[in-house]
Amino acid sequence: MTSQRKCPECNEEIRGRADKRFCSDYCRNVANNKLNRDSNALMRNINNRLRKNWRILSELNPKDKTKTTRNKLLANGFDFTLFTSIYTTKKGTVYYFVYDQGYLPMDDDSYLIVKRET
How are the residues of the chain apportioned to helix, strand and coil, as percentages rounded to the nearest 5? Predict the structure, then answer.
């Protein structure tokens, strides 16, 4: 006697291959979307702000390296509190990165924007 397998999403009987987990593509997609969505508003908001920071740096740095001012970054809505990594050179220079776009605070309230090679 074989036991009937049930779809974890809709509880319908699963027909077909022995390793099939869902009854249909629809149920599989619904379950995966539930699993992969940002689980709360905090994560979603931080990810959106990081993307905005990255877009600002990318637009101001169309090539591999450029210089800009703090006021220009702030005018575009840049948030200096959010970045994805910090890179410190052997000389002690600290670069802040938002994914592959980085910035280096300079002495005269300007910033050097660089792109990390991937």
Answer: 30, 25, 45
The beta strands (E) that lie in the chain are given as 65-69, 85-88, 94-98, 101-105, 110-115
pLDDT 10s digits, 12-43 = 999 999 999 999 999 999 998 888 776 677 88
> Does any domain span residue 15?
no
In a domain, residue 36? The reply is: yes
User: pTM (2 decimals)?
Assistant: 0.70
- Residue 54 forms part of a structural domain: yes
- Count of domains in the chain? 1
Q: Residue type for 88, please?
A: T
If you search the block for the tokens 């074989």, which residue do you land on?
2
